[in-house]
Amino acid sequence: MPSLVGGWRSCPCSAAVKPESVCRAAGMAVAVPGVLGQLRAAGLVRRGLVLFAVGVVLALVLNLLQIQRNVALFPEEVVATIFSSAWWIPPCCGTAAAIVGLLYPCIDSHLGEPHKFKREWASVMRCIAVFVGINHASAKLDFANNVQLSLTLATLSLGLWWTFDRSRSGFGLGVTVALLATLIAQLLVYNGVYQYTSPDFLYIRSWLPCIFFSGGVTVGNIGRQLAMGGAEKPHND
């Protein structure tokens, strides 16, 4: 009975497979994951830069509203000329926006629950407009007391999440962002970096967590859309 080794050597197809082609195929198999990894890293950097720029622009515009209304006061020596904003606020907000915007699609992927609700840029732009409107309300509208203002902004912030997100991960990350950002604001005010007029929640305004929550949801939606590569998706209402 012929041996299996001899049978394999006598097979005509074995002669067509040369060592050079095998090495070349193995090299391509090794190179492809490396190229994909580089492309993912480059995409991550691009998304982070876009989110950083968005955070900087939002910080300048929203901080201008707060200063014009005298909600937030800064010492004269730390106030810069651009939009009358302290120089460190835009880069800090830009960094926070990049971190939060990159975390949202990452958490969605980790939980195995991809966000599919209203995935298009038109919805993202409306979300940004509503977020700016909430900040405008906090700075411009007069309420009988801070409790009424806080409840109104809390309702608007939850409405923003329900209208443009509706995901458990989005709500959880929004609450986490609100808690961490509020704690950081408390520490900054306590150390005299800046102050709020008429603080009613330790050193800050009680409605500030609502602003941070809606901001986290807004930046998260931007990050999710950027992670899609800008492809338009139908609504999943």
From TrEMBL:
Keywords: Cholesterol metabolism, Endoplasmic reticulum, Lipid metabolism, Lipid-binding, Membrane, Steroid metabolism, Sterol metabolism, Transmembrane, Transmembrane helix
Database matches in Pfam families: INSIG
Topology relative to the membrane: Multi-pass membrane protein
Subcellular location(s) per record: Endoplasmic reticulum membrane
Classification via InterPro entries: INSIG_fam
Gene Ontology BP, a term: SREBP signaling pathway
A cellular-component GO term for this protein: SREBP-SCAP-Insig complex
Family statement drawn from the similarity comment of this UniProt entry: Belongs to the INSIG family.
The name this protein goes by in its record: Insulin-induced gene protein
GO MF term (any one): lipid binding
Summary of the function given for this chain in its UniProt record: Mediates feedback control of cholesterol synthesis.
